[in-house]
Amino acid sequence: FFLLLTGKVDIIHAQDGVVSILLMPLAWLFKRPMVVVIHGLDVTYKLGLFQWLIRRSLNSAAQVICISSAAKSEVTARGIREGKVTVIPLGVTDDIYTNNKAAARQILDKEYPELQGKQVLLSSGRLVKRKGMEWFIRNVLPVITESEPNTILVISGEGDARSVIEEAITETKVQDKVLLLGRTSNELLHNLYNAADCFVMPNIVVPGDMEGFGRVLVEAALCEVPVVASAIEGIVDAIHDGKNGTLVPTEDALAHAQAILRTLQNTDASQKQGKRAREYSLKTFGWGEIVKQYLQVYKQTETSKA
Fold first, then answer.
1. For position 223, what pLDDT does the model report?
2. How would you label 216-238 residue by residue, b for 16+ Cβ within 10 Å and e otherwise?
3. How far, in Å, CA of 249 to CA of 255, rounded?
4. DSSP per residue, the chain
5. pTM of the predicted model, to two decimals?
6. Which end of the chain has fewer CB atoms < 10 Å from its terminal CB, N or C?
7. pLDDT tens column, 177-229
8. How far, rounded to the nearest angstrom, does the alpha carbon of residue 19 sit from its chain's CA centroid?
């Protein structure tokens, strides 16, 4: 309120749907156009009052930016005019890549001796049902380890699904094939990214929940790690099949296993793929490119206001 009262403000930018509800009265009071960014879950929350408010907020916005086509579908499904909705993916900062896989691996092997001599599949993110880790451990990991017994799945993250993941590990008898790290430090996570042989994101469909984008996939690609992920929701905006990773049908165990095994069994091809994926991801998702797209939306907003 103070900034709008005293400063020169051309556009009000709300970085998510909840914030837009709070800023909507200010936009109306000060007659300023509002641009809203929607991530996915900030528009799908089921509470009736919230749905009423978010529709009012998005209808009042001058422009709505969605971080993925899946998020856009949720917005337009609520009656928001498609002409004012633009998809701009999340930007990434190239501050994880070290270009020294051997050094990162040496640090990991020292901290976790059980990783020595193993091929590492990496998963990073909140442990929630939609991430598909329980399904992956039960249906995909046994197929992979039967063919490549020297493989271990390393899971970084914490969340409500941890207990069912632990049950899956016990029931499928893969205790020696999974390393469940819980919440990790940034330093450890960076070493994991740079040392991994393949990054997996086997998301499944969960009604009322969705993957808005999947920034971790782009971060993995920036570290030249081959990526295999489910072709659903916002993931298809983060991974462009054949460009910076491989997309496979969700809950298709054989497709997931085959794609991962191709990566693990063809080292030279995987390294070349990783380098191409890094170049493509930098060009497509680097902040320099993303900022240009935001500025274009701002200019359109100013033009329409005039």
1. 96
2. bbbbbbbbbbbbbbbbbbbbbbb
3. 7
4. -HHHHHS--S-EEESSHHHHHHHHHHHHHHT--EEEEE-SHHHH---HHHHHHHHHHHHH-SEEEESSHHHHHHHHTTT--GGGEEE-PPPB---S--S-HHHHHHHHHHH-GGGTT-EEEEEES---GGG-HHHHHHHTHHHHHHH-TTEEEEEE---TTHHHHHHHHHHTT-GGGEEEEES--HHHHHHHHHH-SEEEE-----TT------HHHHHHHHTT--EEEE--TTHHHH--TTTSSEEE-TT-HHHHHHHHHHHHH-HHHHHHHHHHHHHHHHHHHBHHHHHHHHHHHHHHHHHHH-
5. 0.90
6. C
7. 999 999 999 999 999 999 999 999 999 999 888 899 999 999 999 999 999 99
8. 21
> Which residues, other chains included, contact 267 with Cβ-Cβ below 8 Å and sequence gap of 6+?
none
Q: What is the pLDDT of residues 146-178, one digit of tens each?
A: 999 999 999 999 999 999 999 999 999 999 999
224: phi > 0 → left, psi -120 to 50 → alpha, else beta; which? left
